[in-house]
Write a structure and sequence with these properties.
Helix content: 55-70%
Shape: globular
CATH class: Alpha Beta
Oligomer: single chain
Number of helices: 12
CATH superfamily: P-loop containing nucleotide triphosphate hydrolases
Number of strands: 4
Distance between the termini: 86 Å
Length: 262
């Protein structure tokens, strides 16, 4: 009888209930993600082991969802002559905190929150803008006091000039990564990797790692009015991180001028 009653419940009601549960779980996970001990839970239950930082990890790439972490990951794989261990794509500050404890180089990607969250919501239409905005804010606010300990890269730079980011990793951590000199070839190889990865996850236009007209139209329809205050806070922290990038660039230019005048 109980199972038979399920047939009487409209699919739209089931979807709303499932969506509400998914968002509540996601938001709880977001708050737990501020603690490095969440990674121990992942280890105990065997969750995402190939993505989690360990003592043998050589590089960590993290950021909020849809800030080009996957793009950065494939850039590193394609541009380097030797295979090496990269932990990435957990989208939680716990991963970065643990990496910093282990003295492992870290690259943190960031993107305008409106674009990042719209893309995330379009990719997973059962999630809310509030849930993704909260995760964005908590991710970058948690790491804000330690900004000087990792390399930050804006989305636009990741997708247009990744060699410049590799140079920053080398100068910050003394990594010795190879700097690719054929950017068109690098971009083409990365695009092929992204397309293959995309196909593994269904291949739908809204889930694509690359721009397309269908996804662009869907993103334009994402509503932020009801979450404007939260979006404003996300934009404030985004601008703070951009300010940090500007400070690094000014410092680098100043150091170059000093060397040239020495």
């Amino acid at each position: 009888m109980i199972f038979g009653l399920g047939k009487l419940v409209p699919d739209s009601v089931k979807f709303r209930a499932w969506r509400k549960w998914k968002n509540l779980f996601f938001r709880a996970h977001t708050h737990l993600g501020r603690s490095k001990y969440l990674l121990q839970v992942y280890k105990i239950f065997g969750i995402n082991q190939e993505l989690i930082v360990t003592r043998s990890t050589q590089l960590v790439i993290e950021g909020a969802a849809r800030t080009a972490t996957t793009f950065a990951y494939y850039n590193m794989l394609v541009s380097q002559p030797l295979t090496f261990s990269i932990a990435y794509h957990i989208h939680l500050p716990a991963q970065v905190i643990r990496a910093l404890e282990l003295k492992i180089p870290v690259l943190v990607t960031i993107r305008n929150p409106r674009d990042a969250v719209a893309s995330a919501v379009v990719r997973e239409n059962f999630m809310s803008t509030k849930a993704y905005l909260e995760r964005y804010l908590i991710f970058y606010r948690t790491l804000e006091p330690r900004m000087g300990e990792f390399v930050v890269a804006d989305f636009s730079e990741v997708v247009s000039d990744f060699p410049a980011i590799i140079k920053r990793l080398n100068s910050t951590f003394g990594c010795g990564y190879t700097i690719p000199d054929d950017l068109p070839r690098l971009n083409a190889e990365v695009a092929e990797c992204l397309d293959r990865h995309h196909q593994c996850y269904g291949g739908g236009p809204n889930q694509s790692y690359r721009p397309n007209s269908i996804k662009k139209l869907a993103k334009a329809k994402v509503e932020f009015v009801s979450q404007q205050a939260l979006l404003d806070r996300c934009e404030d922290i985004y601008n703070h991180y951009l300010g940090r990038l500007s400070d690094v660039a000014i410092s680098r230019n100043s150091d170059a001028d000093t060397m040239n005048n020495a």
